[in-house]
Amino acid sequence: MEALARSLVSAVPAIAGVPLWTVTLLMMVLSAAVLLAFALTFGGLGSYVLRKVAGDIQVRIGPNRVGPYGLLQFLADGAKLLLKEDIIPAKADRFLFILAPYLVFVGSFAAFVVLPFGVGLTASDLNIGVYYVMAVTSLVVVGILMAGWASNNKWALLGGMRAAAQIVSYEIPVGMAIMPAVLIAGSLSLQDIVRSQGGLLGIFGWNLFHNPFTFFSFFLYFTAAQAETNQTPFDIPEAESELVSGYNVEYSGIRYAFFFLAEFGDMFVVAALATACFLGGWHVPFFRAEALPALWGNLLSLAVFLIKAFALVLVMMWVRWTLPRLRVDQLMRMSWKYLVPLTFVNLLGVSLWLLIFKGKGIPALIASLIG
Amino acid sequence: MGLKQYIADIVEAVVTTAKGMRITARYGVDAKEEITQQYPEVRREPSERFRGFLHNDIARCTSCTMCVKVCPVDCISLEAVRGADKKMVLASYDINIGRCMYCGLCVEACPTKCLTHTSGYEKASVDRGELILHFVHEDPAEIKARVAKQVAEAAAKAAEAAKAAEAAKAAESPKMTESLRPGKAEGSIVPAAPAFAAAVGNPGGGNPGGPKAPDAAKEEWEKKG
Is the pTM of this model over 0.80? Predict the structure, then answer.
């Protein structure tokens, strides 16, 4: 960010007199605002698409009254949430009750910072990007537990407890499933991971096709990550048939909207991380986006990245409207007895593969055989 | 749990998940059947024997009050007066559709088949008074006054005719007049008195207290309903 600010100051003579830190700060605020706008828009349009997909799958029509094809439904919903009464239960722990939605939202939104949207489009390319995402999304569990506890409601508390157990359990398989990508790239930076997947017609460089273990890793990650972010069919913290609405049962109005947006933010983060680590990130198939001029390269890679991520989001919605919810014990068994051992085996397999074949994947090996 | 069972479990989970996903994908992409109807724009045609709102074709109504008598919830109220030609004239015919339970007994009872079920079913309103359907649109008091006037005119005519006949007869044989007079008067003149109309109009007790202005009737409906 500072390097960018320096180049901007030297390129535009009008702001030559402004101190460097001011320009840097302004750019930080600007990029944060852009990401926030993106996250909110995604939350809004995502809810519309979610309901439309649900309608299609359940042979209904879905929202179609507000605006053309019901496209403005999310604006109506947003206005409704803003205008709702902000109710805080009399016996709630006021401070924690108010703080919880912010923590949950921050936990999911902060992960946007390191997502590699394009060739040069990252708010901050941290050299511990993957680790940062894992750490910051764990903040969500604190917020959810806090919301459950502060509501002073048995359903909310049960939801919060379940969320804590679930998120902590599933963090292990998520981390283990993403490790192969880190091993192949030799870096925790998400941009480095994406860069390591270039070449070979654009598609065969993807970690997904690197070797059989990474192929399974992708599915293991996708499953575990859905559980970690409380997506249906792993949404036992808010299972409405058992817990009314779970940890957010006492929330209304804009405070509820924060939980809602955090859920969609999580959805996008999971899809974006899966894209970056296994589906080649912003790499354009059969084309080198880096070779283009900076502006066009960025735009093209941004478009490709978003298409891949949105496709994964669509798959998550598809799963959501297909599979029935797991029971609590089934959920725990799935994590500890199936996903954790499998991801460990996968990690071991990838490590051995990289050792034996000197870091080359199957496509690379075939390419070297052909010549 | 052996390793074999463990792997079988995983395979089963993957296979069944894929199966479910295939089914929902098929529905999502190509539903093949349209179930939802866009109600205000597209309406389903009610069946032929659908019991919708009641409608009374008052031109054919004989004010027999069969519908009023048979109605189990007393939602029909009727007022009628005896006209100059001795037929009943409807002064008002109201159906409280908010209280009607669509049993259809009144339609079965109607001898002239002028009371029928329509296919109508949309009548949301903010006021219960709006749920009362009025089939006679004139003011009942006006109708009664008109009928009473007609009856009176007819009576006067009859009296005149009787007088003329009497005079003619008197000219013929003056002694006969005294015996003829009372009988004739009894047979031809029935006054359209309010008390009579009330007796005809309210056998079921739907509208006690004789004829009322529409507003008063409405208020009473609301009190009852």
Answer: no
